Amino acid sequence: MMKNKTAKVVVNGVVLAAIAAIGVAAFQLGTSSKEDTVPQEMVFESEETEQKAKISEEEEPLVDAGTSQVEASMDDDTSAGMETDGENSGQDENGVTEEMSGTETMTEGTEESYDGEAADTSAGATAAPELNFSEDTLTEWPVNGNILLDYSMDQTTYFPTLDQYKLSPAIAVQAVEGAPVMAAAAGTVFSIEETPQTGTTVTMELGNGYQAIYGQLTGLTVAEGDTVQKGTIIGYVNAPTKYYSMEGSNLYFAMKRNGEPIDPILYLP
Q: What pTM was estimated for this model as a whole?
């Protein structure tokens, strides 16, 4: 019995020792794994921290450098833009000034042209009056002076230069050479011709079949096709032709209706 009890105690002791050994081993294993794991995690974290620190240290200079470069580039662009704006502004100002000067020049040219037109209008050369001559229309004296030869289609009248009597389809109004000749009525220049008897002669259409003829002129201010106002200067008195040398310088003035001579005196005031 004693042996059996001793054997049990020994077995129990061995079992307990084994259990204790196993527990110690397990504890050591657990402790060693934790100890091994913690340093690895700490090492990883420290390495990661160091890498981040390195990255941040490497990135910060780049960011600073990039920022400074960007700022410098922006400053350069801004200053260049300001200089460009200044140049453009100067160019614009010069361009505007030149354009304004050109406008002023054009305005001056327009004013001069307008003045010229005004002068022409006062002369009646650019106007286009209605041509509606009739028996009741009154004309103006084309020149101021005495009548040297009267109109006469019913009987002959004496012509001193020709020393003969003949019909007179016009009047000869005494005037000095160079005296202005005015349109007796509004009309359109139908023809300008040179004849031996009346020299430079202008025929004007007055409307309704009426015509006015001005002879012995010089320095014409009108051309064929021109329409002029009443009282417009159309030329100047020339030296008399050989047919009027005895009468002296004068204006040859005649009127027609439907191609037939009529007495100009009937339409003069």
A: 0.55
